[in-house]
Amino acid sequence: QSVLTQPPSVSGAPGQGATISCTGTSSNIGAGYAVHWYQQLAGTAPKLLIFRNTDRPSGVPDRFSGSKSGTSASLAISGLQAEDEADYYCQSYDNGLRVSVFGEGTKLTVL
Amino acid sequence: QVQLQQWGSGLLKTSDTLSLTCVVYGGSFHDYQWTWIRQSPGKGLEWIGRIFRTGTTDYSPSLESRVTMSLDTSRSQFSLKLNSLTLADTAVYYCARANGGVELDAYFDSWGRGTLVTVSS
After folding, report:
1. What are the DSSP calls for A45-65, one per residue?
2. What does the alpha-carbon distance between residue A21 and residue B110 come to, in Å, rounded to a whole number?
3. Which residues, at least 6 apart from A97, have a Cβ–Cβ distance to it below 8 Å?
4. What is the pLDDT of residues B39-69, one digit of tens each?
5. What is the pLDDT of residues B76-112, one digit of tens each?
6. Mutate which of B107, B110, B113 to test chain A, going by most A C-beta atoms within 10 A?
7. Probe site for chain A from B67, B102, B105, B113 (most A CB atoms < 10 A)
8. Residue A14 in contact with residue A24, Cβ under 8 Å?
9. Scanning every residue of chain B, which has its alpha carbon at the shortest distance from the alpha carbon of A45?
């Protein structure tokens, strides 16, 4: 069981939006550590999507946005496209475990 | 545009030692943390450890008794060794560049393609 909790799956119709939550504790997100998000397409390595809670690397569409509050963070995707179907992971640092930690992943299905 | 290319042994037996190497093309080798992450169906993504350009290492407490990381700055390469393998070590192993200086909550902005390591008895 992962330290960061994500819903196993979310779905949405093309053009609609979807939100993926990432819930942590006072040892990680709540301690002020940044949250980062990754997209993993089937059979490929994870790709950085959001870093430091809200920043997007160059080349990532502004349909993807991140937020953080308290012990939780969220990834919002607007204007869903078929190519957005993937697994999404949040990541932070846990000062109790002394490791970078990942969420279990959320599978996004575009209906 | 930085690229990470990795290689190493993919089929091993229990008690063997896993050995993987990652070479970095493009970008500076000296300004980042160089990390290894693995992904197995049962445990998701798991951070194994990191190495700095100075050679200083930081390992996951759950693996540190079995892990050794090293680097060769002249070749822009870094390596992972994991000994006393068990079936639970079966996973896809990724090398990755961690961006964020010496920060603990660095993010992984470049990844290798991954190496499937299968441990059998």
Report:
1. --EEEEBTTTB--TTS-TTEE
2. 24
3. A3, A27, B61
4. 997 668 999 999 998 999 999 999 999 999 9
5. 999 999 999 999 999 999 999 999 877 889 999 999 9
6. B107
7. B105
8. no
9. B113
